[in-house]
Amino acid sequence: MKNLLQYFPNLNQEQKERFERLPGLYAEWNDKINVVSRKDIENLMERHVIHSLGIAKVLNFRPGTRILDVGTGGGFPGIPLAILFPECQFLLVDSIGKKIKVVNEVAQALGLENVKGQHVRAEQVEGQFHFVVSRAVTRMGNFYPWVKDKFMKQSNHSLKNGILYLKGGELDEELKESKLKRIKTYALSEHFKEEFFETKKVVYIPAQ
Ligand SMILES: C[S@@+](CC[C@H](N)C(=O)[O-])C[C@H]1O[C@@H](n2cnc3c(N)ncnc32)[C@H](O)[C@@H]1O
């Protein structure tokens, strides 16, 4: 929690309380439905919460922004972002129903009214969004076609509507193979000092 407060010093009391409750809630739900590895439960704040919030170091979502989290698993990056941006609307989807059960239970326990978890494959999601966020789902060349028709025309940010994807390691080959244009990468090591973030990046791909 100390690191989170250092990296995000402007949290209000409600946000602090919600973040503080996350490790306990996930430990409790993980005992019933395994959604996060045991090792990661021990490092939940760093590896899941702060990592998810890396997207907020790239873009500060304005109130009213509609965001889709594809392949959210237990709710990452969607749940931490929804706590940070309570005036934005988040749809968190996954093709595995039990993961979405955990997402909805956690959101309900925290009183997060801006989160909806839906058991659906990415390709079948209905609706339009300003941004799509994601982590650890598939290579970009597979991912982009799933979401290409889901972007709203009107943009409300300095960055055009598009994808903000949390990736690690060597990306050049994967991004080249995707044939997508105007890709930008942002190193999280510029924001977070822990070793875990050394190779972590946010990849931004504008809708095209
Ligand atoms: C490795 S997990 C990552 C979960 C979460 N994003 C995280 O970083 O903790 C990948 C998730 O993507 C989901 N997934 C894979 N293909 C999908 C698809 N076509 N539509 C929706 N979810 C999908 C899987 O069910 C799984 O929960």
UniProtKB/TrEMBL annotation:
Keyword rRNA processing: yes
SUPFAM superfamilies, A to Z: S-adenosyl-L-methionine-dependent methyltransferases (SSF53335)
Gene3D superfamilies membership: Vaccinia Virus protein VP39 (3.40.50.150)
Keyword annotations: Cytoplasm, Methyltransferase, rRNA processing, S-adenosyl-L-methionine, Transferase
Residues that coordinate or bind S-adenosyl-L-methionine: 71, 76, 122-123, 135
EC numbers for this chain: 2.1.1.-
GO terms of molecular function: methyltransferase activity
Localization per record: Cytoplasm
Pfam families attached to this UniProt entry: GidB (PF02527)
GO annotation terms (biological process): methylation
Span of the signal peptide: none
Main localisation: cytoplasm
Protein family: Belongs to the methyltransferase superfamily. RNA methyltransferase RsmG family.
Functional summary from the UniProt entry: Specifically methylates the N7 position of a guanine in 16S rRNA.
Listed name of the protein: Ribosomal RNA small subunit methyltransferase G
Organism per entry: Roseivirga thermotolerans
